[in-house]
TrEMBL record:
<dbReference type="GO" id="GO:0019901">
    <property type="term" value="F:protein kinase binding"/>
</dbReference>
<keyword id="KW-0472">Membrane</keyword>
<keyword id="KW-0812">Transmembrane</keyword>
<dbReference type="InterPro" id="IPR036915">
    <property type="entry name" value="Cyclin-like_sf"/>
</dbReference>
<feature type="transmembrane region" description="Helical">
    <location>
        <begin position="66"/>
        <end position="88"/>
    </location>
</feature>
<dbReference type="InterPro" id="IPR013922">
    <property type="entry name" value="Cyclin_PHO80-like"/>
</dbReference>
<dbReference type="Pfam" id="PF08613">
    <property type="entry name" value="Cyclin"/>
</dbReference>
<protein>
    <recommendedName>
        <fullName>Cyclin</fullName>
    </recommendedName>
</protein>
<keyword id="KW-1133">Transmembrane helix</keyword>
């Protein structure tokens, strides 16, 4: 779970730098960490998925500056988590499960996933060098 804390720390830095825009104080660091832990549990994610999520998040904000805001941060983190699990863990649930636990319709779940993939230009593959670089970076915050 230490990578979860590290990823949360990075997200808080994005908020402080204004990369995540219009961030309201209603979701504080503790709440963000709690959400990420819940995400970890309900998706049955490996800890390594948070490295993958960080890479996907970086890909998103590098292509679409200021697209992440207080209104869509949770959805983006959720769908990045779904993509990470599907690509890198041995087991993932169907979208119907993810829709159910997130409280949205399966149609909306599918739309969110498709939009996310378009926004990161379908770049889901991560080479070993990139993974190690991000893992080392996140490990500095442990």
């Amino acid at each position: 779970m230490s990578l979860v804390k590290s990823f949360c720390h990075i997200l808080c830095q994005y908020i402080e730098l204004g990369i995540i825009t219009n961030y309201k104080s209603s979701l504080n660091t503790k709440d963000l960490y709690s959400f990420l832990c819940t995400l970890h549990d309900i998706m049955n994610q490996s800890d390594e998925c948070f490295v993958i999520m960080a890479i996907y998040f970086e890909r998103l904000i590098s292509r679409h500056k200021f697209i992440v805001n207080s209104c869509n941060l949770i959805q983006i983190l959720f769908i990045a988590g779904v993509a990470a699990v599907k690509m890198y863990d041995d087991f993932s649930y169907k979208n119907s499960y993810y829709a159910k636990v997130s409280g949205i319709s399966q149609q909306d779940m599918n739309r969110l996933e498709e939009n996310f993939l378009v926004m990161i230009d379908y770049r889901l593959m991560i080479n070993e060098e990139s993974y190690n670089k991000y893992h080392d970076f996140l490990s500095k915050f442990i």
